[in-house]
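hey
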């Protein structure tokens, strides 16, 4: 394990990840890209996924240019499209990718700036909820058996759900998950993130009950912004004005590179256990520390309702028993 002299986690010297394979959704920019970069630097094989072919290719090229030794490949995946999720998962399971194991996944893709008016996906689901929460619920179900096969005596595969500090700032209506009664962009974002966190905690409880050797962890990146982030051609190219504007927020903000460090730690730190919640020490910025999530996302009733709603909307149930058998 990589630690500093004082025994603390050192994000600049991660534990070697050679021989492990990780999938990151929304990997062509922001937090997802920098998480991929950090994992590749540590020696992992990284599957970068995204829904825009050109942007994904640009991110892939940028990563290889910055880390010549990187082992990385790309996968088209639109988490708001169930068909795309299932096709991508099938590729990971052995179609296009000659991989025998999947050691972890970061459910990072999402809409950070929701539309002002309510929009629906092709299958009639509210766009923000479908992208941030429902699509990753389906992906988790599709990849669970493959992840359970990677479990061993020294490693439990892990899924990391991307939460948000905003879950402490807004209300949640469990009876109107798709915001059919009342919609606002802020409510859509907060409610989707409450759902994400609830799914992450509920997944871990159900994995434990079913004795599936896969952990589910929730992490949030604090206030990570592009203008405080290193320039990477094709990935992060903030304008001069954005640099100035975001620079003013330096006392309360951090780079997306720093935000990704929390997510990566949640994925690979062997001392972290399923069901934990991690974020920056000072809430919006700082080193990764274990935290207590919002009461709403931790509420057993909310968790159960969100899980049941996702099962109903997606027509998918997680194959817990099959995954438990596959791990034996």
């Amino acid at each position: 394990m990589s630690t500093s002299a004082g025994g603390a986690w050192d994000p600049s010297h991660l534990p070697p990840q050679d021989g492990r394979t990780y999938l990151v959704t929304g990997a062509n920019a922001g937090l997802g890209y920098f998480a991929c970069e950090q994992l590749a630097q540590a020696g992992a094989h990284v599957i970068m996924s995204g829904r825009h072919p050109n942007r994904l290719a640009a991110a892939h090229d940028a990563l290889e240019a910055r880390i010549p030794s990187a082992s990385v490949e790309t996968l088209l995946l639109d988490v708001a499209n169930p068909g795309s999720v299932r096709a991508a998962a099938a590729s990971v399971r052995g179609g296009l990718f000659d991989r025998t194991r999947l050691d972890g996944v970061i459910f990072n893709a999402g809409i950070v700036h929701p539309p002002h008016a309510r929009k629906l996906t092709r299958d009639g689901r509210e766009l923000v909820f479908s992208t941030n929460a429902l699509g990753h619920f389906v992906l988790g179900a599709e990849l669970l058996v493959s992840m359970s096969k990677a479990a061993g005596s020294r490693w439990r595969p892990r899924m990391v759900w991307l939460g948000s500090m905003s879950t402490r700032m807004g209300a949640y209506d469990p009876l109107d998950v798709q915001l059919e009664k009342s919609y606002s962009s802020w409510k859509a974002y907060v409610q989707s993130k409450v759902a994400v966190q609830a799914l992450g905690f509920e997944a871990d409880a159900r994995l434990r009950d079913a004795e599936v050797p896969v952990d589910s962890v929730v992490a949030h990146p604090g206030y990570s912004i592009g203008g405080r982030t290193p320039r990477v051609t094709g990935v992060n190219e903030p304008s001069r004005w954005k640099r100035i504007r975001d620079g003013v927020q330096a006392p309360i903000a951090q780079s997306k590179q720093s935000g990704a460090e929390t997510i990566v730690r949640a994925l690979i730190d062997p001392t972290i256990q399923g069901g934990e919640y991690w974020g920056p020490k000072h809430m919006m910025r700082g080193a990764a520390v274990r935290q207590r999530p919002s009461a709403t996302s931790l509420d057993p009733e909310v968790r159960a309702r969100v899980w049941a709603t996702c099962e109903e909307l997606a027509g998918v149930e997680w194959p817990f028993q099959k995954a438990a058998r596959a791990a034996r």
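The domain at 21-327 is CATH 3.40.50.720 (Rossmann fold). The first strand starts at residue 21 and ends at 24.
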